[in-house]
């Protein structure tokens, strides 16, 4: 079973490196280092390849219904247990920046769980979700289906700033 633990540890590390390098690429581009940004993007994509392969090796890519159920479980844990604890600790330590970020994420995770439940209900019937647009708040990660709200109900960003996800 040590190999199974190693696979999951590697998946976590590769996943984090993927996101970290993608963000570093944005910063390098912002700082005027176009080629360094490309290098970070390439490394980010390489880490994503590793993460995808590890998830397959772990046998964790299942049916869409099973994947939605797992998503509901994970998102629910985050908004009911993980983030409330993090918010409390950040408040005790006077880390208002972290407290706000955790609060936004917690509220968005609750929305995600609800959307996954709706999707699971549709998939269980053999249907896809019926939506025109999937919109993403670029600040807090809130997801809205259909029309974009006038402002994000979680962080207050104007709805015009929401991204359309293809």
UniProtKB/TrEMBL annotation:
Q: Which Pfam families match?
A: Rubrerythrin
Cited Gene3D superfamilies? 1.20.1260.10, 2.20.28.10
Record PROSITE patterns: FERRITIN_LIKE
Instruction: Give the GO molecular function terms.
Output: metal ion binding; oxidoreductase activity
Entry coiled-coil feature ranges: none
Domain Ferritin-like diiron intervals? 1-127
Q: Report what the protein is called.
A: Rubrerythrin
